[in-house]
């Protein structure tokens, strides 16, 4: 598995998928190798992590090149080691596909959620991603999409079929005892968890909240490693009711923030099925989300949707005032989360791996039941 920051998962959706799928495949007896970037000493697990073998390679800390160069090193390393199947994450890494094909390694590329639409990329970056999509279609043995909207895009734009493998929603314990560490109370705040990037609409959410008459504070979790200007704009849009916590890497505390939120505001618009959204649903949060097909696909009737700051203001005011309606949406959200199961996702990856390697799936062992 290559093309991500690797494991332990401490950043985004691809990393979460690698960790959750990889650990399950390792538990089933497969040898799983994950190419990883350097981590902090306390986060690193050496050469293995949850049964997966970590191959840690150096990086160049430059936003536009970091992923591509690290994946190139990973592909070069992989050429010298036997593997049955490679899972390549992020179509931006597609230029390295010929290298893997040269070694006759079957490759499934997990394409990203319309990366060229992200606001952080200029015209050159957008053209590169559009080219990379074409290279991924031509050079991959299979394409993986995590949402129906992504599958539809590749069918309509590139006349390419995809295997749809989504993400899983975690079952989050209903604990809130640590919220007191942040001077918060269960049900006493609205929550945003997102990287500070334009397509995640953190600024619009803060602007909408500021225009609202919400009595409960807005708690914002997240940051942006390369975007000081956008971060400054987000902070400038806030009033005294907005609390910025920065990155929260303590997973237990982050889970309790989801559980204790009066409502969760999800502004992501281009990334397909989003792990933060699924975690909020797994925590039983009432979710209001940016109005795009990806979010509607995941939330269904459990969601409320907005498309501008005025919609955010209406959403938080409704969540503040309508206790019964908000509780009902939270229950629907929790039920819908059960449709997203990591074991099922791992089953899909395993079937695809056997298919690409030209092997039959092993017979299930008899249980006597």
TrEMBL record:
It comes from Nakamurella aerolata. Gene3D superfamilies: Glycogen Phosphorylase B (3.40.50.2000). Residues 12-158 form the Glycosyltransferase subfamily 4-like N-terminal domain. This is DUF1972 domain-containing protein. It holds the Pfam family Glyco_trans_1_4. InterPro entries: Glyco_trans_4-like_N. GO terms for molecular function: glycosyltransferase activity. Keywords: Glycosyltransferase, Transferase.
């Amino acid at each position: 598995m290559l093309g991500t920051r690797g494991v332990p998962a401490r950043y985004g959706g691809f990393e979460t998928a690698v960790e959750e799928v990889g650990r399950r495949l390792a538990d089933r007896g497969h040898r799983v190798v994950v190419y990883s970037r350097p981590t902090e000493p306390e986060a690193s697990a050496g050469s293995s992590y949850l049964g997966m073998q970590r191959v840690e390679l150096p990086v160049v800390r430059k936003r536009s090149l970091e992923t591509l160069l690290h994946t190139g090193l990973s592909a070069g390393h992989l050429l010298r080691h036997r593997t049955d199947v490679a899972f390549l994450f992020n179509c931006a890494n597609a230029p390295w596909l010929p290298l893997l094909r040269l070694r006759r390694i079957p490759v499934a590329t997990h394409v990203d959620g319309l990366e060229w639409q992200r606001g952080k990329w200029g015209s050159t970056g957008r053209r590169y991603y559009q080219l990379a999509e074409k290279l991924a279609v031509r050079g991959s043995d299979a394409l993986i999409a995590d949402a129906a909207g992504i599958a539809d895009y590749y069918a309509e734009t590139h006349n390419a079929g995809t295997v749809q493998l989504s993400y899983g929603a975690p079952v989050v314990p209903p604990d809130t005892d640590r919220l007191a560490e942040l001077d918060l109370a269960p049900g006493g705040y609205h929550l945003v968890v997102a990287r500070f990037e334009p397509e995640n609409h953190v600024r619009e959410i803060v602007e909408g909240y500021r225009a609202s008459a919400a009595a409960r504070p807005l708690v914002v979790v997240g940051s942006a490693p390369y975007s000081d200007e956008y971060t400054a704009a987000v902070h400038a849009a806030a009033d005294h009711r907005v609390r910025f916590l920065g990155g929260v890497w303590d997973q237990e505390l982050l889970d309790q923030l989801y559980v204790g939120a009066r409502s969760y505001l999800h502004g992501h618009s281009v990334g397909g099925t989003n792990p933060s959204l699924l975690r909020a649903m797994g925590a039983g949060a009432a979710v209001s989300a940016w109005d795009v097909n990806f979010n509607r696909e995941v939330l269904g009737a459990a969601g409320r949707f907005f498309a501008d700051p005025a919609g955010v203001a209406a959403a938080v005011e409704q969540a503040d005032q309508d206790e019964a309606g908000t509780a009902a949406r939270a229950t629907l959200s929790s039920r819908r989360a059960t449709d997203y199961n990591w074991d099922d996702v791992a089953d899909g990856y395993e079937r695809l791996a056997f298919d690409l390697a030209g092997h039959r799936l092993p017979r299930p062992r008899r249980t006597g039941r």
